[in-house]
Design a protein that fits this description.
Shape: elongated
Largest sheet: none
Helix content: over 70%
Keywords: Cell membrane, Membrane, Transmembrane, Transmembrane helix
Membrane topology: Multi-pass membrane protein
InterPro entries: T2SS_GspF_dom
Organism: Streptomyces scopuliridis RB72
Subcellular location: Cell membrane
Radius of gyration: 28 Å
Mean pLDDT: 75
Number of helices: 12
Distance between the termini: 69 Å
Structural class: mainly alpha
Low-confidence stretches: 1-51
């Protein structure tokens, strides 16, 4: 009876804590929504006088938590295999897989960030060309396009400062192009230099640059679509050991006990793991080589 009472008490405490957290999150969302409604377009919510200090780092912390959550998802299957096979070897494998999965997730996030920046640069060129045709000066067009698209990456402040105060805009653009995914800014710097030195039309150059960047993006997307079958082959190769274990159970055998508790099984597990890892690495390398520009 005492154990039941303690369990009910703990359950009630957890429910109360969850309700309090939900109310706090809902209230915070309501405050953020109200600030967005009352803020002028283009203004930063975090810059408002009534905004709490955690408005700046909350999205970044949420993104880091999501990455950690994905990285640690390889531990529950390892724990399940350890319980089914009555061995600690799957736990060691799960722990070793955590940094590998984290590295893969970070590489995927970097690739997505490069692609998002490349897309913003394409939008920047098109928007700047439209602003120039509307009658704006090159500096004003660059400032307006950067403000609406954010296509200058992490070096946006340096480029905009050079544009506002008469600095060397092409040099600032070339420095900003060193960021991964910002290669299109090299073309923008060349167009700017030609327009300033030779008097050529900047809008026409930006149109050609925009068309070239769009064609490159479409080519990259088409190549990725063609390589989807190859990536599917890599996934199938990674799932073959799981299929083998399932077939063993279906035939009435106990593959985990054989693999984890017999010398022959341990040898087969070590050799098979090495061959599986080498095969996955080689297949992924071939596909990535095909994806390279």
């Amino acid at each position: 009876m005492t154990a039941l009472t303690m369990s009910l008490t703990v359950f009630a405490a957890v429910l109360c804590a969850g309700g309090a957290v939900r109310l706090a999150v809902g209230q915070e969302r309501g405050l953020r929504r109200a600030r967005r409604l009352l803020t002028a377009p283009g203004a930063s919510v975090a810059a408002m006088p009534g905004a709490p200090p955690w408005e700046r780092w909350l999205p970044e912390a949420r993104e880091r938590a999501r990455r950690l959550h994905g990285k640690w998802l390889c531990l529950p299957p390892a724990v399940l295999l350890a319980l089914l096979g009555e061995s600690v070897l799957p736990l060691f494998g799960g722990v070793l897989a955590v940094p590998l999965v984290g590295r893969w997730l970070r590489a995927r996030e970097r690739r997505k960030a490069r692609e998002r920046l490349a897309d913003r640069i394409v939008a920047l060129c098109g928007t700047a060309a439209g602003e120039l045709r509307a009658g704006m000066q090159p500096t004003q067009a660059l400032l307006a396009a950067a403000g609406s698209t954010g296509g200058l990456g992490s070096a946006e402040g340096a480029v905009l400062a050079a544009a506002r105060f008469g600095g060397d805009v092409p040099d600032a653009l070339r420095k900003a192009a060193r960021e991964p995914g910002a290669d299109g800014l090299v073309g923008l710097a060349a167009c700017w230099r030609v327009a300033v030195d030779g008097g050529a039309g900047l809008a026409a150059g930006l149109d050609r640059l925009d068309a070239a960047l769009r064609a490159e993006r479409e080519q990259r997307e088409g190549l990725r679509a063609q390589l989807a079958g190859a990536w599917a082959t890599v996934v199938v190769l990674a799932l073959l050991p799981v299929v083998g274990l399932a077939l063993g159970w279906a035939l009435g055998a106990d593959p985990l006990r054989v693999l984890l508790h017999t010398p022959a099984g341990l040898g087969c597990l070590a050799v098979g793991g090495l061959l599986e890892g080498a095969g996955l690495w080689w297949a992924a390398r071939i596909v990535r080589t095909g994806e390279a520009p």
